[in-house]
Specification:
This protein has about 170 residues and is mainly α. About 55% of the residues lie in helices and about 5% in strands. It has seven helices and two strands; from the N terminus they run αααββαααα. It has a two-stranded antiparallel sheet with strand order 1-2. The longest helix is centred in the C-terminal third of the chain and has 22 residues, at about 145-165. The radius of gyration is 19 Å and the shape is globular.
Length: about 170
């Protein structure tokens, strides 16, 4: 199957899930709203994208479908729903750690070393930020056990990504 067909199927599946699962749609919306691009994008490109999103034919217009069938006003600027306790934002100049990225780039030892400088609350925030606890086992873990869990999850994701992008 071609890459274009694969991407079409992938995004169609995301659209279908967002349509039938309002919590998933809300999480996608929150992720996209919180995205801060590091790229410089010309103003005319931003304006064209805003017009595309506002077009009724594209499903824009500042409204979204509510699960009960009615329309809900867009919550621009509202905080996304929290499923986990809020975590402290990073301090100025503090880099957010991407466990899977660091594992792929520098290996298990580098990730373990990077995690060793974080306390338990920072590791819990990292787990929440990167959704590294899909089964909900980490609340009972100690700091060292949590660091080992993060390394194991990063390794698992790196292996999964290798397989997924091996075409």
């Amino acid at each position: 199957m071609s890459l274009n067909k694969t991407l079409d199927r992938f995004f169609d599946e995301i659209r279908r899930e967002a349509k039938r699962n309002p919590k998933f749609a809300d999480r996608l919306d929150a992720v996209l709203r919180n995205h801060e691009s590091r790229r410089e994008v010309p103003d005319e490109v931003l304006e064209a994208a805003a017009q595309d999103n506002a077009s009724p034919a594209r499903g824009g217009g500042g409204e979204r479908q509510r699960a009960g069938g009615g329309k809900a006003n867009s919550n621009r600027g509202a905080a996304p729903p929290q499923s986990a306790p809020p975590t402290a934002p990073p301090q100025a100049g503090e880099q957010l750690l991407n466990p899977a990225g660091l594992y792929k780039k520098d290996g298990e030892e580098a990730l373990s070393a990077a995690l060793s400088s974080h306390d338990l609350s920072a590791l819990r925030a990292l787990v929440a930020e990167h959704n590294l606890d899909p089964s909900g086992v980490t609340p009972a873990l100690t700091r060292d056990e949590l660091a080992a869990h993060i390394v194991a999850q990063a390794k698992r994701r790196a292996e999964r990504d290798e397989k997924m992008f091996d075409y």
